[in-house]
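Quick start: read one record
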Amino acid sequence: MNIQQSIEQSKKGDKLAQRMLFELTCGFLKAVALRYVFDESAVDDILQETYIRIFKKVGTFNYVNEAATMGWMRQITAMESIRFIKKNNRWHELSSEGATTTVSQPPKAFEDEMYKVLQRLPVKQRIVFNMAAIEGYSHKEIAAQLDIAESSSRSLLTRARFYLQNQLKKNDSYEKV
């Protein structure tokens, strides 16, 4: 069973198809959540909420292609990650200047230098970077989601990019972020 078939059968309430959709997409969505929240137990909570939302909304979802479906699911995961951060006061607790969140042992899928450098970004910068540079949100959309000014979003993205470029240049890991 592929993603399209899983979506179509999930619309009919087929639990096996929902399980298959979960198995086909869980790794990808976990990677998305891990870009926002580095705590794996928190990521499991985020994924649970993500799939609850996906299965609630799947009835109104119109399958176009696999890329569009994964984009839709990625967007839900990103919003659930941000909701989690806000709900658990991690946004304010961890967003003071220079504060970072780290995980003691990064998941094997994230032993990449870029992931390690992302971990060292202050929370607000990391979230704005993920939303703008990776997810493709506009500063207006980011500002609305995070309850900040558009200028703050631009400033946070600029700081994040500057920091990432400097860190990656030191290691000659990447040419330009």
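Residues 92-107 have pLDDT under 50 and may be disordered.
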